[in-house]
Amino acid sequence: MSDKQSAPQESVTITLNARLQPIHRGELEDALAQVLGAHSIGEICGGGSLLTDGGEVSECDIEIIATDTSPQAIEHIISFLERALAPKGSKLRIGDQVTLFGKHEGLALYLNGTDLPDEVYENSDINHVVDQLAKLLGQEGMMHSHFDGETETALYYYGSNFNTMHQLIKPFIDSYPLCQRCRVVQIA
After folding, report:
1. Do residues 152 and 111 lie in contact, with contact meaning Cβ atoms separated by under 8 Å?
2. What's the rounded Cα separation, in Å, for the pair 135 and 169?
3. 105-186, superfamily in CATH?
4. I need a surface site. Which of 29, 160, 164, 184 has the fewest CB within 10 A?
5. 32 vs 50: CA distance, rounded Å
6. Is the whole model's pTM more than 0.85, yes or no?
7. What are the backbone angles phi and psi of residue 119, rounded to the nearest 5°?
8. Hey, where are the domains in the chain?
9. How many C-beta atoms lie closer than 10 Å to residue 140's C-beta?
10. Do domains 3-101 and 105-186 have the same CATH topology?
11. Which superkingdom (predicted)?
């Protein structure tokens, strides 16, 4: 019997306070799987998203079957997630033990999809919004996912400080026609 087969296994649940579409959560899971494998910690066995009544992701889980839950192994997991994307309010659970972690703050920009004049939608481009916000935020924040709702489109940004991100993008969103009647919400 190999060590891998005889090693005790424990279930580890990571709840990220992040609004990630399943495809974006999957990209993070793939990167985390490499860390788990490199440190012989375990493997990912599942994941999911908690949705609001309107279908928007409110948080997401990553499930791990771990063969190593030592403090060093947990530190590897948390350290990787905090470098990649771990908003404040994220949790790692092993049985009844919960470890809170996360460094990033989140900003959601909700673009109004129904109440603007038709010519605004015809003459504006959401890709221009995404490109401009990326330039304005620089190293202060990054778009990690989005949501296309019935009346709004949300762009989710995570960075070190919500207020800094908001101030950097405010002049643009105040002036670009597609951003009229938008909402900016702190999500982490």
Report:
1. yes
2. 9
3. SP0830-like domains (3.30.70.1280)
4. 160
5. 20
6. yes
7. -65, -25
8. 3-101, 105-186
9. 15
10. yes
11. Bacteria
Residues 6 or more apart whose Cβ sits within 8 Å of residue 115? 181
Question: What DSSP state is assigned to residue 40?
Answer: T
CA distance 165 to 168: 5
Look at the domain 3-101 and name its fold.
Alpha-Beta Plaits (3.30.70)
Place of tokens 């221009």: 128
- pLDDT tens for 102-148 read 999 999 999 999 999 999 999 999 999 999 999 999 999 999 999 99
66 forms bridges with which residues in the sheet? Answer: 10, 42
Q: How far apart are CA 185 and CA 180, in angstroms?
A: 15
pLDDT, tens digit, 9 for 90 and up, residues 79-114 = 999 999 899 999 999 999 999 999 999 999 999 999
